[in-house]
Design brief:
Shape of chain C: globular
Mean pLDDT of chain C: 83
Strand order of the largest sheet of chain B: 1-4
Helix content of chain C: over 70%
Order of helices and strands of chain B: HHHHEEEHHHHEHHH
Radius of gyration of chain C: 21 Å
Largest sheet of chain C: 2 strands, antiparallel
Radius of gyration of chain B: 19 Å
CATH architecture of chain C: Orthogonal Bundle
CATH class of chain C: Mainly Alpha
Oligomer: heterotrimer
Shape of chain B: globular
Strand order of the largest sheet of chain C: 1-2
Number of domains of chain C: 1
Number of domains of chain B: 1
Order of helices and strands of chain C: HHHHHHEHHHHHEHHHH
Helix content of chain B: over 70%
CATH topology of chain C: ABC transporter involved in vitamin B12 uptake, BtuC
Number of strands of chain C: 2
Chains: A alpha/beta (447), B mainly alpha (292), C mainly alpha (365)
Low-confidence stretches of chain B: 288-292
Amino acid sequence: MTRTWTTRAAMAVCVLTAGSLAAACGAGGRPDKDEKGGSASDVGITEDTVTVGAHHPLTGVAAPGYSEIPDGARAYFDFVNANGGVDGRKIEYLVRDDGYNPTNTSQVTNELVLKEEIFAMVGGLGTPTHSAVVDFLNKEGVPDLFVSSGSLQWGDDPGAKPFTFGWQPDYEIEGKIAGQWIAENMPDAKVGLFLQDDDLGVDSEKGVRRFLDDQIVAVEKYTSGNTDVAPQIAALQAAGADVVMGFNTPSYTALSQLVALKLNYEPKWFYSSIGSDPALVGSLLARFSEGAVKDSASLLDGVMSTEYIPGVDVPDNPWVQLWQRVWDEHGKEGELTNYRIYGMSHAYAFVQTLQAAGPDPTREGIVDALEQIGSDLEGPPLAPFRYTEDSHLGISGLQLVELKGGVGEELTPVLVTDLGDAPIEEDDSATEDAPPEDGIPDVKPVG
Amino acid sequence: MQQLLNTLLTGLTLGMVYAAFALALVLIWRSTRIINFAQAPMAMITTYVALTVIDADYSYWVGFTAALLSGLVLGAAIERLVIRPVEGKPHINAVILTLGLFIVIHAVAALLFGSRYRSFPAPFGVRGFQVGEVNVALTGFGIFTIGSVVVVMLLLVALFRGTDLGLMMRAAAFNQEVARLLGVRVGRMFTLGWALAALVGSLSGLLIAGGSLVHPSYMDSAVVFGFVAAVLGGLDSPVGAVVGGLVLGVSLSFVSGYVGSELVALAALGILMVVLLLRPGGLFSHATPRRV
Amino acid sequence: MARSVLLRHLGLAVLGLVVVVLVLESTSAFRNAQFATMAYLGIAAGGLTVLTGLNGQLSLGHGALMAIGAYTTALLLQDQQLPLVAVLLVASAVTTLIGAVIGVAAARLHGPYIAGATLALAVAVPGVALYFNDQLGGEQGLNVFVPDVPGWFADAVYFLSAQDVSGSKYVAYVGWLSLIVTFVLLANLSRSRVGRTWRAVRDDEVAAEIAGIPLGRARVLAFVVSAACAGLGGAVMALTVRITAPSGFTLTLSLSLLTAVVLGGLGSLTGALLGAALLTFLPQLVTSLGLDVGLSDLQSAQLAPLVYGLTLALVILLAPAGIVGSVRARWRRQQERATHDYDLPTTTAPPSPARTPGDEPGGDK
């Protein structure tokens, strides 16, 4: 039995090998030069469509909150498509779930780039996740726009990553601006840092230390996913910190507030923009009202934070009114949230960029366009982008606010800066940007 | 000093929650010799039942009861419909089946309830006490947590040690054939074991959720540490589960506060290995390993 | 006998190689990348199926062992001095070493206690990468520099298929070559005296010990072999994913591996490969089906785990021996019916002289 089977297998191998050898002989030597048929730079663009993609965590532990970002972006793209698209092309927006796991990000990005042949990646989310694919995207020459993460690496070295652009203010400048304000206004404060143990914590600590190095009395880090932060907050309390600066995600804002209640710890709190979202945190905290909290908004009263795009707490802002209109017309179930606004804002920036690239956009062309006019784009951000040939970092600044009744009250004007020891300056050039009447930008093609 | 006290107290509360989860695992292990990984999502889904009830403007306690009851029903149903066919088959099949259930319940919950964070209320307040100058990191809900787990443990011990029903359950688990000959309805005992376990599991879910945030994966770390606690205690012993949970909760709290939160899981591994190398059957094992 | 077994395995290996070349050359770059994924899952699953299927130890921590292999690879490739083969071997060796330590500890334990210890291992290892964040890159992980395609390799493939070798195709080749080598070694090992010892320990410890088999040594050896495979799988994973970060090695990875080997058929290398294929292709297939019928992104994304979980539950309930095991059992029954001329109802399955094509020798249960 065994022998006949072996023989059969051997036969099969011979036949197959011979076959493939025969097929190979036709190949002969290599042609002298690789011939590239057509320009590969218009992948993903047809007469009437532009296909773009993104990876987001739709399942798993990072899904709460973040999974709303692509909803917002899709709603805005649908809104643009319903009004004729960009240069007659409809934007097709493909979202793939990576569960915030770089292994999956790599797989779904392969799928988006190689199988779906997207023109560009727009708003791919997360630092470890996007790190897994950033080299691949640049090697394939896929524009990698508006990465949803404040890590420096998306924009500080355009030579190495020519196709990648950051979007939100990086964590370092946020740390610098907040650090300087505290150093000037609370020179005697003992500062404790509550940091997420990744680039969010590392980069912002770098910024904060530029101004507060000798005021910091404790640095505590938590690991994302470990919801028991009591030991960290207890350590900050023990160190006597009377100002705590949290660079963390919204759920950890809620968790740290709850633990502080438990410990009767009442320092002055600062939370970074990504962690403060008063609407979300307030609604999370609202339930714990028995005896401790009267209404959701007041719990965060006096908490300092930063803002770089207008959010749901200012419903009268013309941008927020536009987003509300978009969401009402094209959104899915659920309310407009700051995550959805975040998604819409980078979708808006993509539409601007696509217009700037002209009626026949190419991958190279869209990168060039963004480098040329990126810093002049008028949009929802409170401060201009920093895009040039030498920097692909995103929004250049933000303003400090103090929350009152769920609304941010300005502590400072919009402050802009850059990495390292770049000075911090006032800049209100972008604060007066108003959305166009029809809600669709109208950027002139470059050159 | 205050930090030491508060780290200890939060560790105790956390340990009690792990203990409750470990109790649920121990119950199922005792009745059917299966490690039920689906315990975590089962508890998660009953917590969502409670949340739905509370959102419909019923009181916390109505929701609490609804969750426990639905846990009871869910446990019995899963044993009858899903686990029964693989009982007596290689144990790994049952384990894999519970992993399958884990994935399915997770996905169903995300589809039904969405995957956003939601806050879960806690009775008795979430503010710590203040004794003179010292802040004590113990909330009303924390005391309730500790008390309810201790009560459940005592009830279980009483059930197994002091009642005929408990004796029958132990007999069925110990030796099906003999138990059957003695007139014990083995199948029914198994179902009861699962139902009770799911009830205790739901309780641990409610205790973890109370005064905190829930989302479909919120119980996932509980299954790891709860399982480690159960193994520490020896898997067969309810008292062992509680002691294991406390040891784990307190030590992990100290590691997190004084060393680094990223090493919490490594510390759990270390504790487990040390205990198992000294006592391969866990802290409260009765049987010595069989030697030839 | 031993000689013919070896020959048969080598024959299968050559056959496998031909199939790999044909498949990789005729599929798109996207499929190539998927096949690379299948290869690393297959290598790790092959090791796990030997441990769990042949030796009866349940490991919930193989993802952690893969992480060790992957991190070693990423570190070694940073200064780009060693040839790739050496990198893969070192990664595997380092994991083997650590596997030996864990194996010595695990050998003292039984069933659920091993499960508990390995479960803790699975969640502990990613934390180590966070703690040593200067060396291991913390949450962001380490980028993996995939070496350039060697000239001779590119020429060889070009000679066969007239196609150039892209980076991702090269990784797919590396993965599948590693898989074939691993599987040949595993198949031979499990047919050897060592394999019989493992099975004896699995089936009856007391009898095995009476027969003079050192239980501890057999268990440790099985764990070590399986760790070596996990390390190699991790190394290929690092090349495929191009980054090693803690979030890539969650408990889900360990549990997926275990479900894959049981789904395919415990103890069978073919089954491990089949399980790896399901893990690789099913989620993407289900998600795109979901999108095609008009579900939202979120619903389609949740559909993938739902379908996988249901498949798992149904296979365990309807075909408890796994896909390969059940197919083989049915095939065997038919054979017997044919040879026995329907005259005798078979009460117990006699040791079958026949083997199915594609039946891996590891599959004897």
